[in-house]
């Protein structure tokens, strides 16, 4: 068995010179053989040293990730919130009322989720391909936006539903607003959104608020029915910003 020899510093190391990260901490006896399966501490250290020699002292990324920048930018850079005419902005008192009413709805839903025995008998268990936009649009058209319908969806479909609804309102013509049924659907899915928010959910909610702000920016503040037209847009912007705490999007 080779005689063990451990030296804290190399023989030619100056005692007054500060330690260097590249200076070896241990010296291995020259009689130690390199083995595939070390059986002693020195054999193990020798194997580690030899494996380390196969790697550069400084490792840097040698891949070009610029081609992924376009895909990643949508999660980093956000468009500025569309400007709004003062006549279209909701008051703080109005927003507080909306948040309070929404909180009551959320509390009722949380109690239902905690005790499924209280669920309505009309609960529908809905299963379909979440990536099929035609199926989603058909679902929104033939079903009513009731709680019994939304509760029948799997959790994984809730975020996707809000994402699809945001795409649907993207088709709203300038000067128009969200139709009543679509607004009901959005409110229903917001009421069932889980907390704490996942990063994907936060992104979807922020996109919804920004899209509502964009639609609102094209409304005529002097129109006869402007209060009815702007109400759903203000509600969704208010809930995303004040209830779900995306305060930078608040009016």
Automatic annotation (TrEMBL):
GO cellular component, one term: nucleus
Alphabetical UniProt keywords: Cytoplasm, mRNA processing, mRNA splicing
Alphabetized Pfam families for the sequence: SIP1
Source species, domain of life: Eukaryota
Compartments, as annotated in UniProt: Cytoplasm
GO BP annotation list: spliceosomal snRNP assembly
Function, as annotated: The SMN complex catalyzes the assembly of small nuclear ribonucleoproteins (snRNPs), the building blocks of the spliceosome, and thereby plays an important role in the splicing of cellular pre-mRNAs.
Family: Belongs to the gemin-2 family.
PANTHER family documented for this protein: GEM-ASSOCIATED PROTEIN 2, GEMIN2
Complex and partners: Part of the core SMN complex.
Protein's recorded name: Gem-associated protein 2
Organism: Parnassius apollo (Apollo butterfly)
């Amino acid at each position: 068995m080779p005689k063990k020899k451990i030296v804290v510093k190399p023989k030619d190391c100056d005692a007054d010179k500060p330690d260097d990260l590249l200076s070896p901490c241990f010296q291995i006896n020259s009689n130690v053989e390199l083995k595939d399966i070390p059986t002693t501490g020195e054999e193990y250290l020798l194997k580690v040293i030899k494996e380390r020699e196969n790697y550069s002292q400084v490792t840097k990324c040698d891949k070009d990730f610029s081609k992924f920048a376009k895909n990643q930018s949508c999660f980093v850079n956000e468009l500025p919130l569309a400007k709004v005419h003062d006549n279209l902005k909701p008051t703080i008192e109005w927003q507080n009322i909306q948040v309070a009413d929404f909180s009551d709805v959320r509390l009722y839903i949380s109690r239902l989720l905690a005790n499924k025995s209280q669920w309505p008998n009309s609960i529908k268990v809905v299963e379909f391909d979440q990536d099929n936009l035609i199926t989603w649009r058909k679902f929104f058209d033939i079903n009513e936006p009731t709680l019994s319908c939304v509760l029948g969806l799997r959790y994984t479909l809730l975020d996707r539903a809000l994402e699809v609804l945001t795409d649907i309102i993207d088709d709203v013509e300038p000067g128009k607003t969200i139709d009543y049924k679509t607004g009901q659907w959005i409110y229903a899915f917001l009421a069932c959104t889980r907390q704490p928010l996942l990063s994907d959910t936060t992104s979807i909610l922020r996109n919804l608020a920004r899209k509502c702000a964009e639609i609102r920016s094209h409304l005529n503040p002097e129109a006869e029915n402007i209060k009815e037209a702007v109400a759903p847009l203000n509600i969704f912007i208010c809930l995303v910003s004040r209830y779900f705490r995306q305060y930078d999007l608040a009016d």
